[in-house]
Design a protein that fits this description.
nine-stranded mixed sheet, single chain
């Protein structure tokens, strides 16, 4: 499902990715877009466009910690967030909404970083548990794309294999983040 070939052939001005020992790696400097979606912690500009280039043929996608993410990148998308003002498809703590009955080909996650959960008025997220539960919501070969300031704890015993790490920076004075790509094997 992941296609580094599609990304590199269609990336335009985005920096290339390489595959090393079965793991995709690279670095994205996205720049700022002050129009954004206006939501605290909104995605860096073009973030989902880049992820779409890596997963061009995926049909059904689950966004967790979706915030104000707009639909339209993939054919079928489900949004989960604890903030009802974002009007997600499923409102609540993802710890209790996962694993889902449905199986997805891709899960895209943008959890609060460091102390940022305080900005949303939510408790600190148990990321290790959520990563484990995500494995139960993916088809075999499906991927979890996790944007964070840390690589989350993951385990082979839960069915995960590491498929990629991409460094990401927006601009000066922004936190450096890592996109961790885990494949459900
Ligand atoms: C970094 S923001 C995501 C922003 C999103 N990428 C966007 O572009 O709008 C993190 C989101 O996680 C949500 N959140 C925090 N804790 C949560 C939890 N336990 N379960 C579900 N959502 C949670 C917050 O409400 C917030 O919308």
């Amino acid at each position: 499902m992941i296609s580094i070939e599609n990304y590199n052939q269609n990336r335009g001005i985005y920096s290339p990715l390489v595959e090393h020992n079965g793991c995709i790696c690279g670095y994205w400097l996205t720049g700022n877009d002050y129009r954004g979606n206006g939501y605290y912690g909104g995605y860096p500009p073009n973030y989902l466009k880049r992820i779409k280039l890596l997963f061009p043929d995926v049909q059904n996608v689950l966004h967790i910690f979706a915030g104000m993410t707009k639909k339209g990148t993939w054919p079928y998308e489900v949004m989960m967030d604890s903030n009802p003002e974002c009007k997600p498809d499923r409102v609540g703590d993802v710890t209790y909404l996962l694993p889902t009955k449905e199986r997805y080909e891709l899960i895209v996650a943008d959890p609060p970083y460091e102390q940022n959960h305080e900005k949303y008025g939510t408790p600190r997220v148990n990321k290790r548990r959520i990563v484990k539960y995500c494995a139960g919501s993916l088809v075999t070969g499906g991927c979890l794309v996790w944007l964070d300031t840390r690589i989350p704890m993951w385990s082979k015993a839960d069915g995960w294999s590491l498929r990629g790490t991409i460094g990401l920076n927006q601009s000066t004075q922004h936190l450096t983040r890592t996109i961790t790509i885990l494949e459900r094997v």
